[in-house]
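Worked Example 4.2. Read the sequence first, then its structure tokens.
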Amino acid sequence: SKNDGGMGTYKIRNITNDDVIDEGHIIELSDNNLIAELITENVNVKQFGAKGDNLTDDLQAFQNAIDYVNENGTLYVPKGVYKISSTINTKSSISIIGEDDVPKIIFTGTGVLFNITGHPNIDHEYETMPRDTSSELKPILKQLFLSTGELHGKGKENTTAINFNTTNDTIMARGFLDNIHILHFDIGINIGKYHF
């Protein structure tokens, strides 16, 4: 649809009783018997309804897009100012990449903005971690400006920009943060008992 950021590949097919029209992954077409189903693992957050207009709470659009990407995909974030009211839960195997213009994500809530979880590690052995077939590291977060919207002071109390949710039950996938600007959070990055 107009202003959805593009990049999606859709398959046109007949609607079934199991289909849930969410206007992101499954879009209703003018012929009520047909839908367009998203079939790509790399998506744009605007395909899931994000506005980036500095007014709308874009939390649900981000979470729906991340849930769709699931494993090893990429979520692209075009320029704009995205207000987020609560935690965005993602995995270390997913890349969230902003455009060159560095989109701004304004956290209006308290707690954690990005909660990043690793892969399940049931046997507590490194060898059980799912392997990426490529030898390249990939960004977990790239080219994003993260802020609480506060103009002055040391940071909004009880806020963390990025939390790596590490436990004995998970292992972080190979990845890195690239060109991430963090402003006015109580804690910028939290990794277990270490925070910066």
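Now turn to a second chain, presented in exactly the same format:
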Amino acid sequence: ANSSITANFAVNVTLFSVTASTGTGNGGGGIVQCSVNGGAAGACGSYPVGTAVSVVATPNGVSLFSGWSGGSGSSLNANCNSATGPCNFTLTGNTTLTANFNRPVLTVNVAGTGSVNSSPAGITNCTGLNCQASFDKGAVITLTASGTGFSGWSLGSCPGTGTCQVTLTASTAVTATFGSDRKSTRLNSSHLGISY
């Protein structure tokens, strides 16, 4: 009698994992998703070797995506470190990376003798360099300069010597400059016999 034999072969597929975490230094946040072979983004997982992976970071409404760090595993993944776009690579091994989300930072510098305060609070009695505070993205911060001889702000959007309003869509630095009143000091001192 005729007979048939069927042979079944199992294909061994090597799977590697993609683990994407989030990091923040000042209260920022967001989500990280994976897209494989051009498909829709979703939770990251394990995929066959050779899969084209795109890891996408999306900040929440008050944060900025500041870049990737800690990338290890697949070839090209290390090139994503510090980049601020999607991290694209071909899966060749278990891969990990971290998406960093931070709220914008306002940096205030004071040149001369004077001080700067912010509303809402954060920058308090700044009298020197690198006074910093973190605020939500989109927050409107009002800076007020106090002291004699204030000559203005470094931002073009803040002309004159009044208050300075800063809308934080990104980390921003502002310098408040106070000029010395040396001329009037010299005139007043001449009557006292003080020379310079």
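Notes for the reader: The first strand starts at residue 15 and ends at 23. Residues 71 and 79 are 8 Å apart (CA to CA).
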